[in-house]
Amino acid sequence: AITNHMPTAELQALDSAHHMHPFTTGDELTAKGARVITRANGVYLTDSEGVEILDGMAGLWCVNIGYGRDELAEVAARQMRELPYYNTFFQTTHVPAIALANKIAELAPGDLNHVFFASGGSEANDTNIRMVRTYWAAKGKPDKNILISRHNAYHGSSIGSGSLGGMSGMHAQGGLPIPDIHHINQPDWWAEGGDMTPEEFGLARARELEQAILDLGEDRVAAFIAEPVQGAGGVIVAPDSYWPEIQRICDKYEILLIVDEVICGFGRTGNWFGSQTLNIRPDIMTIAKGLSSGYQPIGGSVVSDEVAKTIDGLEFNHGYTYSGHPVASAVALENLRILEEEGIVDRVREETAPYLAEKWHGLADHPLVGETQIVGMMASLALTPDKASRAKFASDAGTVGLICRERCFANNLIMRHVGDRMVISPPLVLSLAEVDVLIERARRALDECHAQLKEQGLMKAAS
Ligand code: PLP
């Protein structure tokens, strides 16, 4: 049998032999060997060599309550014994799905009172594409079927959600995007703001939505979708002027606003939802990840009374075998209980996030660091050879980011790189002492990265 007790090299060889990894060049991984994670507790992972690593990414932006919560394991075991599976198609239901939908409706802002379940964010965004088109068709406007999204957005990896996203590397493979998806530019002031102030730039980028609606035709555009804070795109925080203008435009032209809360939801930004932190009024929210803190695969679309009322008037020919899966629902419900009863979201807002923000912005004095951005417990920093001119490195985008990520790894900290931007999204239960550890390791990694870049002659700016 293959077990945790095998030597790392053997596990790595078996991994390469039969396991294809997402977003990975298999041959490179085979040459290097994947890091094998064996256990986790709190905010720390342990690898097959027994090394403890501070997980600055909460897995994949999802383990909001941290690792090792027995309550969730118990709820899962109990639910598996009682009712391991039943579906919610046609005219059946079960208590875990009922209870979870009710809880989400209670937590969600405004009149977002109805949940369509999926197994994750990609599936939920596929639901959204079909739901908004079905909604407008039911309203007698079948041509109002274009969804507008943003370049460099991430909304998932299925054909539909990958089309909705704006990742060029994904669009280059497999025949994406599907028809009637349109992309506008992202509000990334550091990289693309030129001579504009952040406020001017935020307005200009929001007004691209209005221009797109006018170009495509108001009667053709069904919805606009965006993450409150772009996560996988590099934790890009829009200037303050951006979201109020987006909201104004969606209201004016009767465009449904889909806010993808897959990362921002469930406490990540210091409120239950990023929409609350940024004062956005969505018609539909995509949820996943923090909904179960990653302990079970579950996601969904949370929709307004108005959208639900319209969809409920017809048979919506859509659904997944695991929509509202009882074990996943029960675990998610327990996760929400813990987040709520332990005051984890409030503590993020009032204590941990302000402390992390102070320390994170403190990294801006490092010679490699340009802008630092943070909202709640998601943060980024831009690596640059010259902060005054917001210069990019002459090397291919991502070369320097990868070196920095490797130095983080070597210092037992997981940070991700997106191009030459470093991002974190740690578990929400991070203590203040653990914030200090994270920052200390990040600074050490930046120092080592800087030294290596100088040695390799990579500190040059692009001309
Ligand atoms: N939407 C956003 C904003 C995401 O960050 C992700 C995943 O990272 C997804 C959707 C896709 O979710 P999943 O990987 O659960 O399908």
TrEMBL record:
The cofactor named in the record is: pyridoxal 5'-phosphate
Instruction: Classify the source by domain of life.
Output: Bacteria
What Pfam family is a match for this entry? Aminotran_3
InterPro entries registered for this protein in UniProt: Aminotrans_3, Aminotrans_3_PPA_site, PyrdxlP-dep_Trfase, PyrdxlP-dep_Trfase_major, PyrdxlP-dep_Trfase_small
MF terms in GO = pyridoxal phosphate binding; transaminase activity
* Alphabetized SUPFAM superfamilies for the sequence: PLP-dependent transferases
Keyword terms of this UniProt record: Aminotransferase, Pyridoxal phosphate, Transferase
Q: Which family does it belong to?
A: Belongs to the class-III pyridoxal-phosphate-dependent aminotransferase family.
Name recorded for this polypeptide:
Aspartate aminotransferase family protein
